[in-house]
Amino acid sequence: MRELTKAQEEIMQLIWDLERCTVGDIREEIKKRTGEKPPHSTVSAVVLTLDKLGFLKHETYGRTFVYEPVISKTQYGDRSLKKLLGKYFGNSPKKMVAHLIKKEDLSLEEINDLMKKLEEE
């Protein structure tokens, strides 16, 4: 699975939220979130690339394409997390969690919740 560019990932986030959508739906969602509606050609170009890369599938209804994710948000997130873990923490989840605890200034309650979760796993 290929790593997405920032623009591709932003569009994929919207598609994961919408689940099934057209380029018009994506543009409307962007307008809701930012107040500005991007050009159809810009969004369409990104969506077509995502389709070609295998992140999306589509159905055709006349001249309209309806897109759905092929790769789930969880699948992409797992892959991204694994890459982050290897690149910055030497493939050590322990180092990553220690870093998060230190940098995020977690409360004792949050640390205990993490410990419980780890014990359950």
Write the layout of secondary structure elements.
Layout: H1 6-18, H2 23-34, H3 40-52, E1 56-61, E2 64-69, H4 73-89, H5 93-104, H6 108-120
Antiparallel strand pairs: 1-2
- Strand content range: 5-15%
Q: Can you summarize the main beta sheet?
A: 2 strands, antiparallel
Report the total helices: 6
What is the chain-wise order of helices and strands?
HHHEEHHH
Helix proportion range: 55-70%
Mean pLDDT: 91
CATH-wise, what's the superfamily of the largest domain?
A: Winged helix-like DNA-binding domain superfamily/Winged helix DNA-binding domain
* Tally of domains: 2
What is the CATH fold-level name of the largest domain?
Arc Repressor Mutant, subunit A
Structural class: mainly alpha
Give the end-to-end Cα distance, rounded to a whole number of Å: 26 Å
* Quaternary structure annotation: single chain
CATH class of the largest domain: Mainly Alpha
- Report Rg: 19 Å
**Biggest sheet: strand arrangement:** 1-2
Shape: elongated
